[in-house]
Amino acid sequence: MHILFVTGEYPPMQGGVGDYTRELGHALRSLGARVTVLTSERAVQPDCAEFGDGIRVLPAIRRWDWPIWRTVRGLAADLHADWVHVQYQTAAFGMHPAINFAPWWWRRQALHTAWTYHDLLVPYLFPKAGRRLRMWTTEHPATTADLVVVTNEGDRLQLERKGRAAVAIPIGSNIRGRELSPRERAARRKVRGYGDDDLVLAYFGFLNRSKGGLALVKTLHQVSQQNPTARLLMIGEQFGASDQTNRDYLEEVEALARKLKVYDRIQWTGRLPDDEVAAELNAIDVLLMPYEDGASLRRGTLMAGLANGCAIVTTTPQAPLPELQHGREVLFVAPGDVEGMTRAVLSLAQEPELRATLQHNARQCSRHFGWDEIARRHLDAYAARSQPAPLPVS
Q1: C-alpha 166: how far from its chain's center?
Q2: Can you give the residue ranges of every domain in the chain?
Q3: Contact at 8 Å (CB) between 141 and 107?
Q4: Are the C-beta atoms of residues 57 and 51 closer than 8 Å to each other?
Q5: Is the pLDDT of residue 133 over 80?
Q6: Could you check whether 2-172+371-384 and 182-368 share the same CATH topology?
Q7: 346: part of which helix (H) or strand (E)?
Q8: Is the pLDDT at 394 greater than 50, yes or no?
Q9: pTM
Q10: Residues 6+ apart with CB under 8 A from 67
Q11: Structure confidence by residue, pLDDT tens digits, 156-177
């Protein structure tokens, strides 16, 4: 089977969707599939190599506008691709709606088309375009693609309520799990300037409004009032390559940190190799991920924390999330509840047994989200839908 992935971002571009596509591609290859990736021209590979770890990468797209329809059709024909599979996140495609309507046309060209929603955020279309029109544009591929994949139960239920069937396949961690010895952990903390008795909180991933950066800073402030050793390690880049509007939000977060006089307690790592990210996650005490829309298995940053055995404080899911239970794998707090986050962080600082329980169970939980299993579920879904259903009358 030959799969042509279409994605708005791909390494070395920064972004979770690109990392996901790379990991899924590798796992599919290990199961015998061929994988080609069509992506942004900004994703030029090291040494301009066309093949990266056995995956053919074509960084050829400058703008994701209407000509993409014929570009993909022609490439799929040249490759004899069995499936065209779009990895969709609105910002990664430049907020242009052309990609949303492409499956409708590709299926008329006899292309098997799959679509993975990495979120259901609505795109900008034009001034005064109402939310109903933008939501219709976002959900349109769910009615025209042969196969629709979502990464969490909440998105599946949202589409189901509108009569649109989707397969839920959770993402895996883009950061492989590792474990540090006590000596290695102490050495890692020392490099960052942290002592054994310091309370080191961490946040992993890009900042944007959905991830609760302001609540993060407020929690650090309140925790530091009760534990003067509290520090915050911000792991990774400050914002991603696909959405430059997050610069303004970063400035808001930094301004608040200065106002609350906790800016000097915050350290940014900048971009790190994956193995170094894993080491940092192993060296901290509490991973605080205050998503404003609640914890979800579509969050690669959360999955990385689980894979690396972090004691995690995060926000209550909006949709059922039976894989994670409060007090077993994580501690849940309502979104925006800074006092609740503060209590949760301090409880982990004061109760090492609870922290150890969360750390152990987080690693155990992450084993259910391995990339080989995710790839197998994709192959099963492709096979089950190899004969496309009739297109809806529009």
Answers
A1: 19
A2: 2-172+371-384, 182-368
A3: no
A4: yes
A5: yes
A6: yes
A7: helix 338-350
A8: no
A9: 0.79
A10: none
A11: 998 999 888 999 999 999 899 9
Mean of the per-residue pLDDT values of the chain: 92
**Residue 108 CB-half CA count within 13 A:** 10
Instruction: Select from 2.30.30.100, 3.40.50.2000, 3.30.300.130, 3.40.1080.10 the CATH code of 2-172+371-384.
Output: 3.40.50.2000
Q: What is the CATH number of domain 182-368?
A: 3.40.50.2000
CA atoms of 368 and 363, how far apart (whole Å): 10
- 243 — pLDDT class (breaks 50, 70, 90): low
DSSP tag of 123 = P
Q: What pLDDT score was predicted for residue 392?
A: 53
Q: Which of 118, 70, 123 is nearest to 100 (CA)?
A: 123
CA-based torsion, 56, 58, 59, 65: positive or negative? negative
Is 118 in contact with 151 (CB distance < 8 Å)?
yes
Residue 388 half-sphere exposure toward CB, CA atoms < 13 A: 23
Write the DSSP string, 32-62: T-EEEEEEEGGGPPGGG-SEETTEEEEEEES
* The residue type at 261: K
| Side-chain-facing half-sphere of 4: CA atoms under 13 Å | 22
- Those residues whose C-beta lies under 8 Å from the C-beta of residue 103, and which sit 6 or more positions away, are 86, 113, 115, 141, 144, 145
Over the stretch 325-377, which tens digit does the pLDDT of each residue have? 999 999 999 999 999 999 999 999 999 999 999 999 999 999 888 999 999 99
Burial of 244 (0-12, 13-18, 19+ CB in 10 A): exposed
Query: Do 212 and 294 form a contact (C-beta atoms < 8 A)?
Result: no
233 in Cβ contact with 192 (< 8 Å): yes
Asked whether the beta carbons of 348 and 288 are under 8 A apart, the reply is no
**What percent of the chain lies above the pLDDT cut of 90?**
75
With b meaning 16 or more CB within 10 Å and e meaning fewer, what string describes 30-54? Answer: eeebbbbbbbbeebebeeeeeebee
- The rounded distance, in Å, linking the Cα atoms of 289 and 287 is 6
